[in-house]
Amino acid sequence: MSTTRKAPEPTPPEPWTPERRSLNARYAAHALHAQVADESAHTAPARAAFMGRFEREVDPDGVLSPEDRERRARHARKAYFLKLQIASSKARSRKQAEQIEAEGPRRVRGG
User: Degrees (nearest 5) of the Cα angle 68, 62, 43?
Assistant: First the structure.
């Protein structure tokens, strides 16, 4: 009597945690920079494109002087990152409140 074994179903990969994604991104960045002679020159086009976003935001019609456009773009960039920081802080607070609520009331010993 011969029995055929069925191959086990492959398990789907578990989603990466934020810590795992961060670790993987750090690894990739170091591996890339180990291969290039000048990291700053290698990433300059990306930095210019990112800053260009803010320049277009503050001067969509291109009427400002380059100095004024750059100054305003720097402020827009700072505001952008502060907005991200505020959103992150709110998310952390919400997560902490959810964890406290899930734990239920704490009992006080002694007394």
Answer: 75
Q: Answer yes or no: are the C-beta atoms of 73 and 51 closer than 8 Å.
A: yes
Residue 54 CB: number of other CB atoms within 10 A? 20
pLDDT at 104: 76
Place of tokens 């290698």: 42
In the chain the first and final C-alpha atoms are separated, in Å, by: 72
Is the CB of residue 24 less than 8 Å from the CB of residue 38?
no
Q: Which residue has the tokens 């704490």?
A: 106
User: Is the separation of the CB atoms in 55 and 73 below 8 Å?
Assistant: yes
Cα separation, 10 vs 66, in Å, equals 57
* Domain extents in the chain: 44-103
Taking 60 as the threshold, does the pLDDT of residue 64 lie above it?
yes
Task: Write out the DSSP string of 30-78.
Answer: HHHHTT-S-HHHHHHHHHHHHHHHHHHHH-TT--S-HHHHHHHHHHHHH
Phi, psi of 33 (to 5 degrees): -70, -20
With a threshold of 0.90, does the pTM exceed it? no
